[in-house]
Design a protein that fits this description.
365 residues, Immunoglobulin-like, Ferric Hydroxamate Uptake Protein, Chain A, domain 1, 3 domains, 6-stranded antiparallel beta sheet, 5-stranded mixed beta sheet
Length: 365
């Protein structure tokens, strides 16, 4: 599955991507808005608002309008420091968090004088739309990493309140629906299998920086099915500092309980995960990079059938991901990413009377 925001082979598409905003671009970012006033409550036009973050190459700068309001759209999700400056007024700073597809509201009052005011509180993210019945929740990477949800994108379904994680591990019923109406997105790209509400791609959860989930009420359409949920995610980006991770995890079949009714258990298998990633600056205040490699492997001993012993099952996936974040100017943000995933399955299925040489396998990319 590839998510490409800029095509390097076509200068026209590059110019189009940079200067013509698209709907998909907004799905990878959040925004900050607010109002500046003086100590008496009067509006303050012309206040310079600067936003800085490790995930944003260079600062984003704007000014308040005649009503004292400002907007900072299309910001990569992360923790930001806002600085408010106006000649003759105090300079104030505020720490805020931007979430995927959400607007963070940050209002600030400035007093007279040249004293700098530092306010270390987190700006509020409005998750309630009074004009809609939808319920929106955002989950940052630090929360994802603290919960043992699993390694795959589909495992994030476990984090959605009120959604059943089905035994087939493919979709979760929401608000009484079957899961057929679910929508899954990765970096704004729809990775949902049409008509089924399941994933058509398997991006790894370790590359995800934030997840936003929207759950709607029941929809009185067709056969009065309840509405599914929409889950969107944004991939990690490089930051102004070099950082990386190397990990290896293993889960032996002895680490899970066995079924006692004689059936083959899907837990009677050995699993391992290799995860490597690195990110950092390319050009200071201009460009960041992030790259990762992911290799999950599953194997188990296949039992005998009418013809005797069967070859062991093995599933291996090699997945690479790369992303470049560039700010050609203070008002422009460009993300270009590419993902390549190849999976090989051998000896995945045998019938009761099939020869050991005709087992079913597969390859997908």
């Amino acid at each position: 599955m590839a998510a490409v925001r800029v095509c390097t082979k076509s200068l026209f598409l590059l110019i189009f991507t940079i200067f013509i905003p698209s709907a998909a671009a907004a799905q990878q970012t959040g925004s900050i808005q607010g109002k500046l006033t003086d100590s008496s409550g009067g509006v303050l036009p012309g206040v310079t608002v600067e936003a800085r973050a490790d995930v944003l190459p260079g600062p984003r700068v704007t000014t308040t309008d005649s009503t004292g309001r400002y907007q900072l759209p299309q910001l990569p999700p992360g923790d930001y420091t806002l600085t408010f400056t106006l000649q003759g007024m105090q300079t104030a700073t505020k720490k805020v968090r931007v979430q995927l597809a959400e607007t963070t509201s940050v209002d600030q009052a400035l007093g007279l004088g040249g004293v700098t005011e530092s306010v270390t509180v987190t700006g509020e993210v409005s998750l309630v739309d009074k004009a809609s019945a939808s319920i929106v929740s955002g989950i940052p990477n630090e929360q994802i990493s603290l919960v043992p949800v699993g390694q795959e994108y589909r495992d994030l379904i476990k984090l959605i309140p009120g959604v059943q994680y089905t035994q087939d591990s493919t979709r979760g019923p929401s608000s009484g629906s079957s899961g057929q109406d679910n929508v899954y997105k990765f970096d704004g790209v729809n990775v949902t299998l049409p008509l089924f509400g399941t994933l058509s791609a398997e991006p790894a959860s370790h590359d995800i920086a934030q997840v936003t989930v929207v759950k709607g009420g029941a929809k009185a359409i067709d056969f009065n099915r309840a509405g599914g949920f929409a889950i969107d995610s944004v991939s990690k980006s490089g930051t102004s500092r070099f950082s990386g991770l190397a990990s290896y995890q293993i889960q032996d079949d002895s680490m899970a309980a066995e079924l006692k009714d004689g059936r083959a258990s899907r837990f009677e298998q050995n699993r391992s995960w290799v995860d490597l990633n690195i990110g950092g600056p390319i050009l200071k205040d201009r460009a960041f990079f992030y790259a990762s490699y992911y290799r999950p492997e599953v194997n188990r001993e296949n039992r005998a059938n009418a013809y005797g012993e069967l070859p062991d099952y093995d599933s291996t996936r090699n997945e690479g991901f790369g992303k470049v974040t560039v700010t050609p100017s203070r008002g422009t943000l460009v993300n270009a990413s590419y993902r390549d995933s190849k999976r090989n399955d051998t000896a995945s299925l045998f019938g009761d009377t099939t020869a050991p040489t005709v087992g079913i396998g597969g390859e997908s990319r």
